[in-house]
Specification:
The complex is a heterodimer of chains A (319) and B (245). Helix content of chain A is 4%, strand content 51%. With 319 residues, chain A is mostly beta strands. In chain A, the strands form seven sheets. Chain A has a five-stranded antiparallel β-sheet, with no helix packed on it. Classes of the chains: A mainly beta (319), B alpha+beta (245).
């Protein structure tokens, strides 16, 4: 066991079952916050909102560093490039926008979708982007090129989540058509359709070790899929309403899920049991993200504020 | 003159008595079966079956807040589960599309409708706001009725909700006075939310309060759950439309 894993485990064991940790609150958005992402160095956080803007927050000063304002409609998702220099946003105005992350200057608009774009992902090497829209269309982009290099068709309804596998060979997509699909990035071939969810599937996420894929559903569960076998291996139950977001820890040993029930749940993946919950939002939580060192989690949603939680002390352990 | 007055009082009393339905009889000639819609062309109204939910942790339930989700909505919409089903107090058992079709079959007209994205682009009351920045269509009235013991109870949609306004910086409670119009956006643009009647001018549903332009400002409203039966109780929703002909 690594030193960091041991310290996390120790903290979990010695932490009181009920602890009240006040989160850091970032305020500025005036509508739902749909997505959050840390910069690769963990010093900044970016947020996408229904108020038509994205924001980059400086986490040391807890202030907005830049506001990104060109979208004509909601901003639904966003990613940093691996070097942290660019921010790419997905908008209801059917555009992907590539920005200078420091100056908020729009560098490029990527046009290829004909309906609102709900999700965007970037491969770990920064070469490829993927985006999914309201019609179920997925576009694959090569960063720097203005048009999609490939379109992936198969989903019958809105695509709410896309994620690249850590090795960049696979793309996962999750959709309102109740399915999660796997695609080969090299040629766009459909690899598998993962069925099991009984309603809309929102965001999906690969574990950093590439072995598991998690999907969040309106059916109130998180489903875990074995990537190699392409089969469901677990259903994480407990949320009382739609689950909108999932995120693995950096060591792939735990997972966080966020729901319309205003809770973030923490799951231990060896036993596949719930460790505890993080409570503080006053309305549905649409987005969570975990800093790369695993020591801070950001959450946001319908109540517009972004909350920053220390991990693991913010987790109220189940008795 | 005195005899005429006595006669008038007698006639009005008789009319009033005749018009009042006995409380032990349903307030409609025929109740819809679960999963069906009754379209009453004589009365220009649509009758639906619904079940009570108590979404206690959702906005505007028991406390004042802003809310885009309807209080009455369908469990299904756009060919799937309604995305906002867990927010509704009155959960209707037919898809929003069926409610839309029923209202259209009565002759109800939609006039201005938008996708939610277009709605957000037109959002807010500004110096440049135009009439087209309000969802528009024929006006509707909504009520809910149910059996309480042997007695039938019917309440206007408005009676479950109070509104708060700020007067000289101080909060003042007032009756909820929405202006509900049938715009049809949620079905025409396949929003999938399931919302039927929204407490603000929201393009996700099919009926909205268009006192204000799209989305903003949103009225501050509070739904009083003590005014509705317990969760799981079957109720009926009546939507009456004033059709432009």
């Amino acid at each position: 066991m690594s030193r960091s894993s041991l310290s996390v485990l120790l903290l979990l064991v010695v932490a009181p079952a009920v602890c009240s940790v006040e989160p850091i609150r970032l305020q500025g958005h005036t509508d739902n916050v749909y997505a959050l992402v840390y910069s690769p160095d963990g010093k900044r956080l970016a947020s996408a909102s229904g108020d038509g803007t994205a924001r980059v927050w400086d986490l040391a000063s807890r202030k907005t560093q830049a506001v990104f304002k060109e979208h004509q409609g909601s901003v639904y998702d966003l990613v940093f490039t691996p070097n942290g220099n660019k921010l790419i946003t997905a908008g209801g105005d059917q555009r992907l926008c590539v920005w200078n992350a420091a100056t908020a200057k729009l560098e490029q608009s990527l046009v290829g979708h004909a309906k609102p774009i709900y999700c965007v992902a970037i491969s770990r090497d920064g070469r490829f982007l993927a985006s999914g829209d309201e019609t179920g269309l997925i576009c694959l982009w090569q960063l720097g090129k203005p048009m999609p290099i490939r379109t992936l068709k198969g989903h019958a309804r809105e695509v709410y989540g896309v994620a690249f596998s850590p090795d960049g060979k696979l793309l996962a997509s999750s959709s309102s058509d109740k399915s999660v699909r796997l695609w080969q990035v090299s040629d766009g071939a459909a690899v598998a359709t993962l069925t099991g969810h009984t309603s809309h599937v929102y965001r999906c996420s690969f574990s950093p070790d590439g072995k598991l894929l998690a999907s969040a559903g309106q059916d109130r569960v998180v489903r875990l899929w074995d990537v190699a076998d392409k089969r469901q291996v677990a259903v994480l139950q407990g949320h009382r309403d739609s689950v909108y977001a999932v995120r693995f820890s950096a060591d792939s040993k735990s997972l966080f899920s966020a729901s319309d029930d205003r809770q973030v749940y923490s799951w231990e993946l060896h036993q596949r049991t719930r460790l505890g919950r993080i409570t503080g939002h006053e309305a549905a939580i649409y987005a969570i993200t975990l800093r790369s060192d695993g020591r801070q989690l950001a959450s946001a949603g319908m109540d517009k504020d972004i909350l920053l939680w220390p991990i693991p002390s913010a987790i109220r352990l189940d008795k | 003159m005195y005899r005429f007055s006595v006669l008038l009082v007698f006639v009005l009393t008789a009319l009033g008595t005749a018009a009042e339905k006995p409380a032990n009889r349903p307030p409609v000639a025929r109740l819809p079966e679960p999963g069906t819609v009754i379209v009453d062309r004589d009365r220009d109204e649509v009758l639906l079956c619904a079940t009570i939910q108590h979404p206690v942790d959702k906005p505007c339930i028991g406390t004042y807040g802003e809310r885009v989700q309807a209080f009455v909505g369908s469990a299904k919409a756009a060919g799937g589960d309604a995305k906002m089903a867990s927010y509704f107090v009155f959960l209707v058992d037919v898809p929003t599309e069926e409610v839309y079709k029923a209202l259209v079959s009565l002759g109800a007209k939609t006039r201005v409708h938008y996708s939610m994205e277009e709605g957000h682009r037109r959002s807010g009351l500004k110096p440049t706001t135009r009439p087209e920045d309000y969802l528009q269509g024929d006006p509707v009235l909504i009520s809910v009725f149910w059996k309480e013991g042997t007695r039938w109870v019917e309440r206007p949609y408005q009676s479950f909700v109070t509104e708060r306004v700020l007067v000289e910086g101080k909060p003042v409670e007032k009756p909820w006075t929405p202006s509900f119009v049938f715009h049809g956006s949620g079905v025409l643009h396949r929003s999938g939310t399931g919302c039927i009647a929204c407490p603000c001018d929201c393009a996700g549903g099919i009926i909205a309060d268009n006192r204000y332009p799209l989305y903003n400002p949103k009225p501050l409203v509070r739904f009083d759950l003590t005014q509705v039966p317990s969760p799981g109780t079957p109720v009926y929703v009546r939507i009456r439309v004033v059709c432009t002909r």
